[in-house]
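job 3f2a | input accepted
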Amino acid sequence: MPELPEVEVVRRGVDAWAAGRTVEQVTVLDARSLRRHEGGTEDFLRRTVGTRLAAPRRRGKFLWIPLEGPAPSSPTTALMIHLGMSGQVLMEDAEAPPEKHLKVVMDLSSAPGLPEQLRFVDQRIFGGLQLSPLVPSGHPSGSVPTAAAHIGADPLEPGADDEALFRALRRRRSSLKRALLDQTLISGIGNIYADEALWAARLHFARRTETLTRGEVARLTAAVREVMEAALAAGGTSFDSLYVHVNGASGYFDRSLRAYGRAGMPCERCGAVVRRTPFMGRSSFWCPSCQPRPRAGRW
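job 3f2a | predicted structure (299 res):
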């Protein structure tokens, strides 16, 4: 599933290629991709066609594009884009062949040298599009869609409050990785980057949050930011064709992973063999030497 770096790469692509352009036509090829939109397909079309796409925004794994009306005004509604497990946002020329799992096509006003269409492709149909009202918040843009109002700030937002995160973790009383994956606490971290940050911070995924020290949380938040920034620089992590940029290119941060997917391989820091442990229906990858297992506690 795309995590913060992958969604941010998509956001930057949409910003460079689609922001400021008018939605001239929308073609819905599979209504299941609009199932989150309460008004249905016709309402989605009526409220989207004719609007201008403002600069896209993101918090954690949530991506949205504020929609500006025909007359100059502050946007009150946003187009939410849920990538889910396999959603892709692609910019294509109108004559380009349709992708196998193409769900929604937006024809945009012409712009020199840029493709005419924004396409939403989704193989597994866990993602989708919806319109959501914008409400005031502590987000750097000043507002978030109501559909994203429940999630926590992400670690790359300006002014992220590390002390508040420390206090929240101490109150949490759960395993550390479980807390990191809770998007209402801190958004944007998924399985891959949780393992990478925990390895970098030398903390075990099953460590109890109520036992963390302020220094350990500071080390962890620094590791999260370092890993996220490195992944962004590499264009995200692409293990298969399900995650690509808006131009169809893949990210290559998988070449820099230190823990995730490296079971049976030597730890690049100490040489111990990296282990894999089942966790919440997924896997956790960790070094038994650098990340000692806690004595007790539920995962």
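job 3f2a | The chain has a mean pLDDT of 91.
job 3f2a | closed
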